[in-house]
Amino acid sequence: MKKIAKKQSLKEAEPYSLTLALGEVIGRELREFVVSAGMEALTLLLERERTEACGPRYQHQPDRLAVRAGHAPGELVMGGRRVRVARPRARTLDGREVELPSWRTFSDEDPLRARAVDQMLAGVSTRRYARSLEPLPAGVVSRGTGRSAVSRRFVAATEKQMAEWLGRELSSIDLAVLMIDGVHIHEHVLLVALGIDTDGKKHVLGVREGATENATACRALLTDLRDRGLPTDRTILVVLDGAKALAKAVRDVYGTRALLQRCQAHKARNVLDQLPEELRPSVRQALRDAYAEPDAERAKKMLGNLSRRLRDEHPGAAASLLEGLDETLTVKWLGLPAKLERQLSTTNAIENVIGSLRVLANRVKHWRNGRMILRWTVTAVADSATRFRRVTGASQGMARLVRALAAYEPTRNQVEPRTKAA
Fold first, then answer.
1. Which residues sit opposite 349 in a β-bridge?
2. How many of the other CB atoms lie within 10 Å of CB of 137?
3. For residue range 38-55, what is the model confidence (pLDDT) as tens digits?
4. pLDDT at 10 over 50
5. What sign for the dihedral angle of Cα 41, 43, 45, 48?
6. Residue 306 near residue 328, CB atoms below 8 Å
7. Residue 314: helix, strand or coil by DSSP?
């Protein structure tokens, strides 16, 4: 009796164990071997789940709830494509289909959509998508790698991501710094808002599409951020590229609680663009020396002296330098550590995000409409956000910045002198 029971136990266990002869492994490529073994394991797994639902074969079970119903053609997701697999079927006694858990999991469409997005971000075109996938062993039938199928999955995935990403709650972000900048794609302008919280962590807060980089589009972006929970009842540092339209929109939404810092890099470019080539190196160095000066009063005097140097021969450059001069030195009045001050004196943090967007946008040959541009923009900036690091100097300086902002009396749009903010 013991021998019979042992044989019966082994016989029942045998269909659900994966046994590979040494001869089946030798001479095969590792990928082909792994895929083939995985397909065999999947078949055994599905059969085991059907046995759990229907009970062992050829055994009478008075309390049976389901019966086997043969196999049917089916498809599962594997390696960025759909592969044909025979699906074991089971039905309840009243004829309803029994869904096997593993089949439900492995037929999910989401991995295919995620793979399509990853490939597009990596620069693979829809035409070359199939070539980017690893080949399957002979005999495995697949589909879903054509240009149209990949495009549909990419659109579906990015539409879903855009809806979720642009509607997410922002009240949990303890905002200290807000940066806004725009990028031109085709005939549209995309405004991107980047936030830095009190721990120095960066967050892409929102994206807004518009025809131009004007106050209306920026105000709509800021209003949307406020409606999604971003606080506007306390002073924050707002770093802008210098566009008057952006500054106006920020003041409309934040009022005097927006402490404006104009990007020093943009200011330097605006000045240098109005100078002859032979004069640019010396003026560029003078600007660098002034912006590197830790004392705000001395930096202001250095920039004033440079303006007087340029006033007679190049009045346009001199006027550009003086325009909004105080706002280019805002962070210096806050008394921050040098590393953090440099980070917050320009919009370079958001320029890195926009740079990733430009790289991705250059791969698209034909833009159909503004919604397509917005989808690609959200996809690019969301992907860029996965590689964010804390701003340089945050560990030493963010606490000091928070104290300075809390102590600031919002009577003007600049801080002067330092004692008012510290």
1. none
2. 14
3. 888 999 999 999 999 999
4. no
5. negative
6. no
7. coil
